[in-house]
Amino acid sequence: MAKRLTQEEFLKQAKETNPQFDYSETVFKNTRTKVKVKCEKGHEFETLPKPLQKTNGRTCPICNKRSQTSSYSDEPTELYFLQIRTDDPEFKYVYKVGITKETVQERFTAEDMTRIKILRQFKFQTGKPAHDFEKEIHKALSEYKYGRSKPLSYGNTELFSENPVELLGLG
Ligand SMILES: [Zn+2]
Fold it and tell me: Does the N-terminal or the C-terminal CB of the chain have fewer CB atoms within 10 Å?
């Protein structure tokens, strides 16, 4: 007969296989009873213990659903590269890469537009290729993330300290 798995043993295996989750409130009872886990973004969900122990890189069902429903659109989508003037003495300009179904002028306030220079725009017929391209670029720029100041009234995530158009040769 197989030895019963203890809470401690279960947590050790789950943390090894899926270290991306938070197990601080996880209580293991037995292999047929679901356990509670939290993802990196703080979503709580329940799952059977086995996938956590045995399958690498499990993803959070709440994150999965969000990325399916919110990011992809059937409408034309624009990927934009912006240069933004800051008040940070060390980084006079920072750069933003993002997607929008509106125009850049509609997406940002008139005041923010006084700081913004559009470097490059790519138009896509639907959201998916724009979203995929954006993801690739954010990944390529991940070491240049900028967070020292907030030059825009909103949308200050995904700012970068290096010019992506030059860096990635998209000019
Ligand atoms: Zn999540």
Answer: N
Going from the first residue of the chain to its last (171 residues), give the mean pLDDT of each consecutive group of 10, the final group possibly shorter. 82 95 95 94 92 90 73 81 96 95 88 96 92 93 93 88 94 80
Same domain? 81 vs 152 = yes
Distance, CA of 171 to CA of 46 (rounded, Å): 47
Compute the distance between CA of residue 128 and CA of residue 139 in angstroms, rounded to an integer: 17
DSSP-derived letter for residue 144 is G
* 128/50 same-domain check: no
**Distance between Cα 51 and ligand 1 center (Å):** 16
Range of the domain at 158: 77-167
Q: How far is the CA of 3 from the centre of ligand 1 (A)?
A: 33
How far, in Å, is the centroid of ligand 1 from the Cα of 14?
Answer: 17
0.70 exceeded by the pTM? no
